[in-house]
Amino acid sequence: MTSIDKKRVRAFEALESILRNTGETELLNMEHRKYRQSCKRIKDGTANFSREKKMAESAKQRALNKKLPYNITYKDITIPKKCPVLGASLKSARKVVSDFSPSLDRIKPELGYTKGNIQVISKKANTMKSNATPEELHRFADWVKANVPLEVYDG
Question: Which of 57, 53, 30 has the alpha carbon at shortest distance from 12?
Answer without folding.
Answer: 30
